## 1
Amino acid sequence: MSDWSVLSSVAERVAHLRNLVPPSVRTIAVSKTVPSSLMREAYAAGIRDFGESRLQEAILKQQELADLSDIAWHFIGHLQSNKAKQALQHFQWIHSVDSLAIAQRLDLLAAELQVSPQICLQVKLKPDPNKFGWTAPELLEQLPLLQPLQHLRIQGLMTILPLGLSPAEQLETFQSVRDLAQTIRQHPDTPLPLTELSMGMSSDYALAVRAGTTMIRPGRILFGERKEIALSQPAQPSDSDPA
Ligand SMILES: *Cc1c(COP(=O)(O)O)cnc(C)c1O
């Protein structure tokens, strides 16, 4: 990622990335901890999709950027059930639906709010105690319970790789996610039309593109290193989310 640091402006970084990624791949600029002034620069350079992982921070910046009415907002952080309603009110996409319980709650609330959010199911195909999400067998087993959730537009699979994989393992894991999406599309009993893959961050987006991702989620290569480390780390998985 070192060659990115010589590019001094967000506009240059957006343009550089555009040259490296096929036009069919949607770039979700991950703007957690990034001030709205820099997001405005990214918007001016053509970015229309922003990814945020903290609700309060995102809502504040949405107010600051309210004049940019064609932004699509993507929630990418772990969603606690007591925040689900706010997420539906403020985001068109939720990439990080990581359990049956939260999917069912979102479906219920979406009906109430009369919205039909686009969502991705978050999977982890390598063991990772620090990440949320379904393993492949868990997801296949729960498909019959996900399929009836009529108010969710379940568009694809999302993944975050664990740290410490070699590039070959990273590529292979992205390919496994792609293959899992195909398996689910073609499932004989409970298919879901999963056409999207949300994979690839600053350090691994090129491999995700090679594996056929449709959306990438770069942050630091566009906006620079984040200062508040605490905000970039997901909380420990826990079953104790307040309902
Ligand atoms: C922070 C984050 C990103 C962006 O990470 P970078 O390393 O800054 O590119 C992408 N996806 C998720 C889910 C994140 O939390």
## 2
Amino acid sequence: MMFLGIVYFLVAFGTAVPTTQRDAKVSYDGYKVYKVAAHGDAADLISELDALSIIDLSHSHAGSENGATFNIAVPPDNVAAFEALNLSAEILSGDLGADIAAEGSFGEYSSTLRANSGDLPSLTWFDSYHAYEDHIQYWADLQAAFPDNSELIEAGTSFEGRPLQGIHLWGSSGKDSKPAIFFNGNVHAREWITSKVVEYITYQLIVGYENDTLVQSVLDSYDFYILPVVNPDGFVYTQTTDRLWRKNRQIRTNTTAIGTDINRNWAVGFGGGGSSSDPSSGTFSGYAPGDAPETAGLIVLAQELAGRHGIKLYVDWHSYAQVILLSYGYTCDAFPANLEAQLALAAGAAAAIAGPYNTTFDYGPGCVVLYQSSGNGRDYMTDAAGAEYGWGIELRDTRYGFVLPPEQILPSGEEIWEGMRYIWANL
Ligand SMILES: *[C@@H]1O[C@H](CO)[C@@H](O)[C@H](O)[C@H]1NC(C)=O
Ligand SMILES: *[C@@H]1O[C@H](CO)[C@@H](O)[C@H](O)[C@H]1NC(C)=O
Ligand SMILES: *[C@@H]1O[C@H](CO)[C@@H](O)[C@H](O)[C@H]1NC(C)=O
Ligand SMILES: *[C@@H]1O[C@H](CO)[C@@H](O)[C@H](O)[C@H]1NC(C)=O
Ligand SMILES: [Zn+2]
């Protein structure tokens, strides 16, 4: 079946790292991005594309309604050779380096631009991307603007020693009194839009608690645990060195390859299809479940929440594909017992997301609507932490991919907030 062929095809790509020096900033100047339709013999394509040192941009984007497609970046020296292959391919970007340059001027978040202590920061935060240190300050500022109903939290420590930070929000019954809604962003380092959207949701929850009855009701009914960046080492690395880095920055004793895919490192389905035991792969699972420190920290938090009042909803935020992923990812042959209720909630959320900008989100069990991915966080939350809704949401877009222009940050937040409002009203 074509679909399976594509899955193996994607997994088989090596990580083409276009640099010889680890610390030099990786340049993507002149790289062309193509959307390729996978016809014919996948094995031939693999060897042909590997020989061209292409970058696989498709771990999060393998399907489309018109048949399977995948996105790749081709180094400038190999563009002519790639075009000579005569694949059925559409150019998405003529210069990935230029896209990154356009995206990469971080906004200021200095004391002059921040709100007065205790006031909410301005929405200009969502006009651009920001340095990691500014995100940390932003979370502290959000918390300070909601002092009686929130606290800063940490869930363990990254490989390089950064705490996994976040905010815990609660309503009228006081903290830790209700089932959990648990969100984490930027598991994958290069998916910058995810931390921004998670921050936007947090901002709207805090604003809405003043006078929006729907928000008051959801915050009075659930404890929110929100961690916008759970792969801080990888995130920093995308800002200093390689914009397209995906994994954490974990060093292992018996390999020179760096990084574990945190979203393949969980116990449920560990080591199955759509994950790799090869440390140089972009989907390297690690050697054992939870052997990435970031996963280990999140497991402790998940089990705490499961043991306290249970997890109502978990969302692991990703980009890009525009799809709401339900469990399972590790198998296409089994489904959560409450699948019908999950599909109904996801359908309503997708329809609400389309409201502001007509952005189309698909939805369904991850293995069925996107591709197989074993050892992922949402399957763990569903099977090992009792989450009623264990989800992943793949945000915009379908053209720029990971390098989403800053003009799309706010619209992306706005449409997702509409989807969240549907969920708040129907949980
Ligand atoms: C690609 O297509 C062009 C014309 O469309 C043709 O001249 C060329 O021989 C083809 N190359 C291959 C490798 O099929
Ligand atoms: C809450 O109050 C602000 C002004 O203080 C207003 O702009 C907003 O529309 C109100 N929201 C609701 C849901 O009433
Ligand atoms: C590296 O170590 C892990 C366990 O620590 C082991 O499972 C794996 O096989 C080792 N790989 C090699 C190439 O020795
Ligand atoms: C909204 O999107 C759908 C699906 O992509 C498209 O068919 C429709 O024409 C769009 N509507 C508007 C008003 O743009
Ligand atoms: Zn991802």
